[in-house]
User: Which sequence fits this backbone?
C-alpha cells in the first residue's frame, strides 16, 4: 500500500501548519507539505472571514 509522504517539520512551518500536520498524523492521514499548507491556509482564511482578524502567530511568509 502506497501512502502519502507525511509532512515533516521544517523551519518555514508556522504553528498552524504544525498543528494541522500533527492532527492529520494523529488521525492516521499523513499528508505532504503542500496539502498541509493548503489546509492551514483555508483555516486561516476562514478565521479571518469570521473574525476580521488574522490568526495569532500568523504565517511567516504570507502570500
Assistant:
Amino acid at each position: 500500500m502506497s501512502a502519502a509522504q507525511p509532512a515533516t517539520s521544517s523551519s518555514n512551518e508556522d504553528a498552524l501548519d504544525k498543528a494541522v500536520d500533527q492532527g492529520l498524523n494523529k488521525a492516521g492521514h499523513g499528508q505532504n507539505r503542500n496539502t498541509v499548507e493548503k489546509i492551514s491556509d483555508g483555516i486561516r482564511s476562514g478565521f479571518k472571514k469570521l473574525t476580521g482578524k488574522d490568526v495569532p502567530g500568523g504565517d511567516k511568509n504570507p502570500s
